[in-house]
Amino acid sequence: MIERTWVVGPFQCNCRLIACDRTGEAALVDPGDDAAKILSKLEGVKTSSGAPLRVKYLLHTHGHLDHVGATRSVREARPENPSILLHRGDEPLYLNLIEQGRLFGLSYQQPLAVDSYFEDEQVLHIGGIRLSVLHTPGHSPGSVCLRMHEDSDSGTRESLFSGDTLFQGSVGRTDLWGADQDQMFRSIRNRILTLDGDTRVCPGHGPETSVGIEKRQNPFLS
Ligand SMILES: [Zn+2]
Ligand SMILES: [Zn+2]
User: Using an 8 Å Cβ cutoff, are 27 and 58 in contact?
Assistant: First the structure.
């Protein structure tokens, strides 16, 4: 298992690389900005046998500009033609990237079409890594969290890529397009806080945390 986090763009989005060390298959979660940085960092990552990675998927926790801004450039630059995945509920936002950027004074190219839509409970395979999709609407209609299961000799480690739904000590904003605060809190309580307390949480911005820590200490969840 290979994992990297690269902080990209003015909103400091955590772009994550996950890759199977055995097969070289890889996915990027939230290639939000700084395509040149992502592409050059990617070139530098090899499997332990020295093989280059093959990026199979570009996965998006949601369609906000800071999570999808480099998708087109990364896809066009990578020879494997990685598939663009997003929940259908955020497709209108994603396709409106130019308009989203205008509100923040940022310019973007027209996004490429989505190749495939996330379904709740869908499982994706990246070599030996399993990722399952949790639809967690609220921060945006099509927000998802991606649950990663890594099997090793010492058991299965669980991680959650929580996008902008849950942060260390905070939760997502709900003042943007199509957001719904009650729905977001329902998603957090019913889909995230029900996971094992040891589950590592990797948010779309800021430091990592765990389900258990947020359950006990997050002031927005008490
Ligand atoms: Zn967001
Ligand atoms: Zn964000």
Answer: yes
